[in-house]
Amino acid sequence: MNENNMHYNENDIQVLEGLEAVRKRPGMYIGTTDVKGLHHLVWEIVDNAIDEALAGFCNHIEVVINKGNSITVKDNGRGIPVGIHPKTGVSTVETVYTVLHAGGKFGGGGYKVSGGLHGVGASVVNALSKWVTVTVYKDGKIYETKFENGGKTVQKLTEIGTCEENRTGTTVSFKPDPEIFDTDIYDYETLKVRIRELAFLNKGLSLTIRDDRDMEDTTGETFLYEGGISEYVKFLNVSKTPIHDEIIHLEGEEDGIFFEVAMQYNSGYNDSIYSFVNNINTHDGGTHEEGVRRALTRVINNYARKANILKEKDESLTGDDVKEGLTMIISCKHPNPQFEGQTKGRLGNSEVRKLADNVFSAGFERFLMENPKEARIIIEKTVNASVARIAARKARESTRRKGDLDVINFGGKLEDCKEKDPSVCELFIVEGDSAGGSAVKGRDAMTQAILPLRGKILNVEKARVDRALSNEEIRTIITAFGTGIGDAFDLSKLRYNKIIIMTDADVDGSHIRVLLLTLFYRFFKPIVEAGHVYAAQPPLFCIKHGKTIKYVLNEEERDTYIASLNPNTKYDIFRMKGLGEMDAEELNETTMDINKRILRKITVDDAIAADEAFSLLMGEEVEPRRKFIEENAKYVENLDI
Q1: pTM of the model as a whole
Q2: Which of 477, 467, 318 is CA-nearest to residue 395?
Q3: Which CATH number among 3.30.365.10, 3.40.50.2000, 3.30.420.40, 3.30.230.10 corresponds to the domain 229-396?
Q4: Contact 328/261 with Cβ under 8 angstroms?
Q5: The domain 20-223: what is its CATH number?
Q6: pLDDT of residue 287
Q7: Average pLDDT of the chain?
Q8: Which of the residues are catalytic?
């Protein structure tokens, strides 16, 4: 036994007081201190303003990115109470910003419905900020309090002026602490997407976002949707072809729980179903989503049988059949939501399942009965999906990887690695046979497998699963991965820890990469979400001076490196050849050697934005797709491996 461990006593027990606990373990409160956590601070303050809107006291919220990357959030709600709090002895504003679990969301009558961190959001933002200033407009007066260095009060709540008698609200400005976060630079697009989403989810609420770092952006963008989630469905379907004109909107309320659904079918083959509770994206679903899905399958089957579209001998439609081409938003406002998991990804309230089922069943049955033409179009689409599913089931069987003897070379395509431990294995999906040949010779045969593609694979955004499974290249990829697809998908059976797309740094290479990403997102989304997908980064230039050889990815890196050289240094610049023109040694040194290469890790931080992007850019519209290829994928982060 370690002698040092024998002296464990009361002196070893630390008590973290006030906001010190948040600074010590920020991940417990905001999940991460990377760029995602940085933006999370904004949402905690915005959520407080949204709560005022949900309570009926706020109709406009403004978010400003200030110069220096501080944030200001303004609302015209009631304003935080300014009186002395009976338990803390300081103003209620200071209490809210310095005491964990202090807020109006614990049954005191302040809010019936709320999101955020339930009483710790404001204080957590304060704890993780370099400085915070809170200004309250109330009863014709202006009050202000200031905090610095992790929530230390440097100015108690002070009356600093007067305002119009009817002006109310709260303005919060804060600067994230650079000692806590990996970066302090806010991304306008990330904030805008969420602000727009909040506007969809709260009809009649106006939200403005402005970037004061950009001198040209003086007015910002304002989002206001009187149609609420119905307009959200319309927005998500903008690049798709709806098969019925009317967006179906259903809603109901019971025991203080408000529930609504908006939906519309399109001619595509992928579903876009998203659920929310108190504006929180429940990306793992929950009882509200389960109730709707159960009712959707039952109602369509019943209608199809009664209308004799489904015959007695026909199989019943499955949940997958009835959601093909469906765009749906599910929103629940609940006074006491019970979330499963720290990230609030799944709703657990059992009573919501029955409410969701009842509201959806009654409304959707009524729509089908009152709109027989649209009803037949919807039912026929789901029946066609069922026929395709049955055909795909047979094709799927042939993609199952039963053992090594079944997959050696896949008819000369896959050059597998020798190692059988998936955690150390990599699969390079390579553009073209010539590059594939060089990759096979230049690889580490123990851990690196090579799968060359012949031409461009099918765009699965515009193809049903049965057609996709008849495509030889796609079947080979599915078999190589080993996970299966659809209901049979099993992430634990993934054969390779890294799936690396290796294509040329030109338009054709980018197009192939995007086609593969579309396939992965639609058929293998858990693989992407788990961080197994990468894009190789072959260099664009080679710079030689003396005995030094330097590879760089683009013109900017080239110019930066040249500028760093001694002015008297003589150098030569060569534009790199395509992957197919590189010999094995060059390909290994520039793109495959784990000690020298650069990979881009493909991430999907926002499933709704990703879904929108793939639908928009891989659907029928040509120009958006062309722009996407030129600008490259927007859902990636640079990662040196």
Answers
A1: 0.80
A2: 467
A3: 3.30.230.10
A4: yes
A5: 3.30.565.10
A6: 95
A7: 86
A8: 431, 504, 506, 508
